[in-house]
Write a structure and sequence with these properties.
The chain is α/β, with parallel strands linked by helices. It has eleven helices and 14 strands. It folds into three domains: about 100 residues, Alpha-Beta Plaits, CATH 3.30.70; about 100 residues, Rhodanese-like domain (Oxidized Rhodanese, domain 1, 3-Layer(aba) Sandwich), CATH 3.40.250; about 55 residues, no CATH class. Bound molecules: zinc ion (ZN) (2 copies).
């Protein structure tokens, strides 16, 4: 039985192009007790591989977190399969705002300790005592309330290109860091303010809201389904959109536009821009914001140094990387002294 990818990303890309069929980018998550994540992992891989589903899925004893690309014609079959797994019956599917047939090029189902690397010791608090879930309409009302403190639970490179009006956007590299910073900043207001939080698809707020309640915050709210579901509801129900800019996503699209506002800047020349790229030098791979002019001038590199390496023959580049370990696997996200205009 084949339980792993046999096609490379390039081969897959070609197949998708040749097929010319629409695919849907979908995400979902569910906290649930899973006895044997390895069995579930293999079951999902075998079934979804047959349906030509691609994506990145984490399975753990605590649940499942999935980001997927599903052929539109197989969507019903996919949904029926989810419904056949008891704890996933009627799970909310977040459907991407902007579709891209190449959002994922491989199917990776991984067994992990946790479905979000949140750095929390779950044994120290009641993870089921979550905040109040609110939909878009209620969220819009709440964030206009002067007694509300609105916090963005994502990392700096995500909120940089898009966030809700008036949100606190911690300048952090990890989820764990933001928990501490927010708690410290709001220590005075644990009882008198409403703490309203949001993230991309809702999963980070599930633990964060329980954590803050454990830390003594009395009024904790979380945006149901995150920015993705908010945007869907705003469009469906004709509500006012209070999200500015782009929603950062963790697939090949890198971001989806929610409003026309461009709130960030090219990290190389400073002009308004919200396009994330990875440095074309494989050994660097730095994630940063680069405008088209700078991309052209710099060969999509973050620095002259990387540009020089990138210009070398591939074999020479490989030789240079040798022995330096997996430096390009360490995701350097949006921080480097070479980026003049990073805030
Ligand atoms: Zn530029
Ligand atoms: Zn670079």
């Amino acid at each position: 039985m084949q339980l792993y990818n046999t096609l490379s990303a390039k081969e897959r890309e070609k197949l998708i192009e040749e097929a010319g069929k629409d695919r849907l980018t979908i995400s979902f998550y569910k906290y649930a007790h899973i006895g044997n994540p390895h069995i579930l992992r293999n079951h999902l891989f075998i079934t979804w591989n047959e349906m030509e589903v691609l994506g990145r899925i984490y399975v753990a004893h605590e649940g499942i977190n999935a980001q997927l690309s599903v052929p539109a014609e197989n969507f019903e079959g996919f949904k029926n399969h989810l419904d056949s797994i008891s704890f996933l019956e009627n799970v909310r599917l977040n459907i991407a705002i902007e579709q891209d047939n190449k959002s994922f090029l491989k199917l990776k189902v991984k067994v992990r300790k946790k479905i979000v690397a949140d750095g929390l010791n779950d044994a120290t608090f009641d993870v089921t005592n979550k905040g109040i879930h609110v939909g878009a309409e209620e969220f819009n009302r709440l964030i206009e309330d002067p007694d509300t403190v609105l916090v963005d639970m994502r990392n700096h490179y995500e909120s940089e290109i898009g966030h809700f009006k008036n949100a606190i956007t911690p300048d952090v590299d990890t989820f764990r860091d933001s928990l501490d910073i927010i708690e410290k900043d709001l220590a005075e207001h644990k009882e008198d303010k409403k703490l309203v939080m949001y993230c991309t698809g809702g999963i980070r707020c599930e633990k964060a809201s329980a954590y803050y309640k454990h830390k003594g915050f009395k009024n904790v709210y979380q945006l149901e389904g995150g920015i993705i579901e908010y945007t869907r509801q705003v469009r469906d129900q004709n509500l006012e959109n209070k999200f500015l800019g782009k929603n950062f996503v963790f697939d090949h699209r890198r971001g989806e536009r929610i409003s026309e506002d461009v709130i960030s800047h090219c990290h190389q020349c400073g002009k308004p821009c919200d396009t994330h790229v990875n440095c074309a030098n494989e050994a660097c791979h730095l994630l940063f914001i680069q405008c088209e002019e700078c991309a052209e001038a710099m060969d999509q590199c973050c620095s002259v140094e990387c540009q020089e390496i990138h210009a070398l023959p591939i074999e020479e580049q490989k030789r240079l990387r040798k022995g330096k370990g997996a430096s390009n696997k360490i995701f350097k996200k949006g921080r480097s002294p070479v980026l003049k205009y990073k805030r």
